[in-house]
Amino acid sequence: MAAFSYRYVFRGRLKLLTAMHIGGGRGTLVPTDSPVVRTPDGRPFIPGSSFKGAFRATVEKLASALSGVSCGLLPGSGCVGAQDDAQKAFNKRRRNENWDEARLVSELAAPGVLCHTCKLFGSAFLAGKIQFDDLYLADELDAIMQIRDGVAIDRDSEKAVDGLKYDYEVVPANYGFDLTIRLNEPDTMELALACVGVSEFGAGFGQIGGLRSRGLGRCQLGDLRIYELDLRGADRAERLKRYLLGARLEDKMTEVPDPSQFLESAISRVLSQALAKE
Ligand SMILES: [Zn+2]
């Protein structure tokens, strides 16, 4: 595996605008039909995979408006990341020609094989370039959970099931969670797509967890800080040393002076290109 040459880290605080429910399964001591997911010491958290799913959906919705940028995981787009005939044909070639890992990577890197969002977030074949840490409660306070009454909804008809009640636990609004997103060696488009997601969550348009149709899980990203590391320049050795020896992120990487400006220029760089192509 080649050594990385540049990366970005986004940090901030994700604040709940409405209560949130990410189901944690039974087996906890909480007396409810549907408890929220907790750390081993009992505090609610947001699994990085849950946040990633919501973030990807947000980016895909917007990226689909730019033609050819995102398959949206829908069949028939030509991207082999979606489960369809293109993926089957790709897998067939892979088997018949007995590709090794290096060959697979080079085939996937060919233009048009994977769409930009599948490259960024990952596909059935290859991990993506963006990683989401688990999000833990920002303050060292104990979260006070709430239990809400609900009516059981039939999944197929989406109608209430008569007489069947259940309750579910939520993390109330206003709690904040620490967020860290890592982005390794994105191209211009992938960086822009990541910035689109960060910008949407920054504007309060993000929504995470379950029961979203009931308005749960609306959230807003604040206190955004962006760090970058670039080992491609002339002072590579000096930066690498700083990165390896630094204890904190602030010591390892360079903080971007104006995060909003950074998002704006990353997005507008590709937006003008994409619009010119249409
Ligand atoms: Zn795709």
The proportion of residues forming helix, as a percent range, comes to: 25-40%
Overall pLDDT score? 88
Number of domains: 2
Q: How many strands, which pairing sense, and closed or not: the largest β-sheet?
A: 8 strands, antiparallel
Q: pLDDT below 50 for ≥5 consecutive residues: which ranges?
A: none
Structural shape: globular
The ordered H/E elements are: EEHHHHEEEEEHEEHHEH
Structural class comes to alpha+beta
| Portion in strands | 15-25%
- Strands, total number: 10
How would you describe this structure to a colleague?
The chain has eight helices and ten strands. It has helices at 48-63, 85-96, 101-109, 116-121, 188-202, 236-245, 249-252, 259-277; strands at 6-16, 45-46, 130-132, 135-137, 146-153, 160-170, 176-184, 206-207, 218-230, 254-255. It folds into two domains: 6-68 and 128-277, no CATH class; 73-114, no CATH class. Strands 1, 2, 3, 4, 7, 8, 9 and 10 form an eight-stranded antiparallel β-sheet that branches. Strands 5-6 form a two-stranded antiparallel sheet. Strand 5 and strand 6 (160-170) form a beta hairpin. It has 278 residues and is α+β, with helices and mostly antiparallel strands. It binds zinc ion. Zinc ion binds at residues 71, 79, 81-82, 114-115, 117-118.
Give a short overview.
This protein is of the alpha+beta class. It has 8 helices and 10 strands.
